[in-house]
Design a protein that fits this description.
The protein is of the alpha+beta class and about 475 residues long. It folds into 3 domains: about 325 residues, Nucleotidyltransferase, domain 5 (2-Layer Sandwich), CATH 3.30.420.380; about 70 residues; about 80 residues, Gyrase A, domain 2, CATH 3.30.1360.100. The chain has 13 helices and 17 strands. A hairpin with a 6-residue loop joins strand 16 and strand 17. The longest helix is centred in the C-terminal third of the chain and has 47 residues. About 0% of the residues have low confidence.
Length: about 475
């Protein structure tokens, strides 16, 4: 059985789509198209026009969709969390990221990718990516305008990086650099696992573009190797992206990093045949990410996904409309029966409540005959019982009131500065005072006890405990003072 998947790679000023037909035997590109925006100064308008052109020039029927948007919109952080449950990680991520980001957590859409494979123990290493909702919404609305419900919405470059990692040997370290018009994105691949994602702004047209990119990559790699503790030695740099149209950029990257540079060329690497109905040429730097998007979906690679909850409800309804209608009718009948049952139970309970109130009123009148008018039997009876208890109890002789500030002042006056004392807890209660702290020797504990016994307000001082701490340098003690 074959499956058609369309990868739609959206950039700041262009859109690329690749239609991948997959079967048990092979992959085949049935169609592709690259559409520069008609209005580069208005990306939202240009995207809408490009999507309309896509629907006119490519047969989208019966296809699943996977979409990527520019990586420059995202912020990335590498984190470690002390558990491996995905639900817990998703709950704590906003609180972990918010102190390091210039945005409020509620304004972000966040997802994460686990770096160390199946969790070992309680430590989980991950890369988290966040995007502002206001930057994500225009893409979602533009896709919805042509009824595109993507299976995933991720960032540009990541699908290609995952395809490269899936093809790499376990000990083959490599760098993948995805370059578009305004950003370069670095993906660090240690063996067959993604370890780091970072995106850098680039000047749109500058002779030092490659030099600036390589400088940022070198700084990032130095920091990554120091923090990760990995012996990372990349054998090659793989490059792709529409920003590689410049003739000498790959050569400049080779010279700056002193590592061989190769083109990604996903179709050539995987020997995927390419066909097209649009008549346009297959240019790997334009098509790689869109093709990798489709491959990522077909192969089921785990990746960052930022469309969760955006189209889920609409897609679920469209796929399960008929069963949902039947289920809804059955649920309505069940709810009607439940409502009738609740009404009957409410009537029965109200009848019982009236009978119990009548009984309480009779008991109240028999117990307190002096009360002539009774409106609320239960609370009024409670009040009467409480009043009776208060009148029946003899009040203990009250002690003179001692202010907390006076107790603190007396303790401060009696213990001289020559005694090493660190109070950790002081609880003042009506009958006693609990004092906890540390000092240097057991003799000092006895000295403190003796001095406190001289305070006028203190009747008796008892050493509840005195123990040497683990370091062997201090004595932890607790004193109980009876006032």
């Amino acid at each position: 059985m074959s499956r058609k998947v369309i990868g739609i790679d959206i950039r700041n000023h262009s859109l690329t789509a690749v239609l991948l037909n997959s079967s048990l035997r092979e992959y085949r590109v049935d169609d592709y198209i690259h559409l520069p925006f008609s209005d580069p100064d208005d990306p939202e308008k240009g995207l809408s026009a490009a999507l309309e052109t896509l629907t006119e020039n490519m047969d989208l029927s019966g296809s699943d969709y996977v979409v990527s948007i520019p990586a420059g919109h995202f912020t990335f952080r590498n984190l470690k969390v002390p558990f491996n449950n995905s639900k817990k990680i998703r709950m704590v991520l906003p609180f972990e990221l918010e102190p390091t980001l210039p945005y409020a957590a509620e304004d972000l859409v966040i997802d994460f990718h686990i770096l160390n494979g199946p969790a070992a123990g309680d430590q989980t290493e991950l890369v988290a990516a966040a995007i502002e909702k206001k930057q994500l919404v225009p893409y979602i609305e533009a896709l919805a305008s042509i009824n595109v419900n993507p299976e995933r919405l991720t960032l540009s470059g990541l699908p290609t990086a995952l395809c490269l990692a899936n093809q790499a040997d376990l000990e083959e370290d490599q760098l993948f650099i995805e370059i578009d018009e305004a950003h370069g994105t670095l993906f660090v691949l240690a063996g067959d696992r993604l370890q780091l994602i970072r995106s850098f702004p680039l000047p749109t047209a500058s002779p030092s573009r490659a030099k600036l990119l390589c400088s940022q990559i070198q700084q990032t790699l130095a920091a990554f190797q120091e923090s990760a503790g990995l012996n990372f030695e990349p054998l090659e740099v793989v490059v792709s992206g529409i920003g590689l149209d410049e003739t000498h950029m790959a050569a400049e990257i080779t010279g700056a990093l002193d590592i061989p540079v190769k083109a990604a060329s996903i179709a050539d690497r995987l020997d995927i045949p390419v066909e097209s109905n649009t008549g346009s040429s297959w240019i790997p730097v334009q098509m790689d990410n869109a093709l990798a998007l489709a491959l990522m979906e077909v192969e089921g690679f785990d990746s960052l996904n930022f469309h969760k909850g955006q189209f889920a409800a609409q897609k679920f309804l469209s796929k399960h409309k008929s069963p949902l209608i039947k289920t809804g009718i059955l649920a309505a009948a069940v709810l009607a029966l439940m409502f009738f049952n609740i009404l009957m139970e409410t009537y029965t309970v109200n009848k019982q409540v009236r009978r119990i109130n009548s009984q309480m009123t009779q008991i109240f009148k028999a117990t307190f005959p002096e009360v002539k008018t009774i409106r609320y039997p239960y609370p009024e009876m409670q009040a009467k019982m409480l009043e009776a208890k208060k009148n029946a109890v003899f009040q203990a002789e009250t002690r003179p009131h001692i202010r907390s500030i006076d107790i603190l002042n007396s303790i401060s006056e009696k213990i001289p500065e020559s005694i090493t004392l660190n109070l950790t807890r002081l609880v003042i209660q009506p009958e006693n005072v609990l004092i906890s702290g540390t000092t240097d020797t057991f003799n000092s504990v006895d000295d403190i006890k003796s001095r406190l016994e001289q305070i006028q307000h203190f009747e008796k001082v008892t050493i509840s405990s005195a123990n040497m701490d683990r370091s062997g340098n201090e004595v932890r003690f607790m004193l109980k003072v009876e006032l």
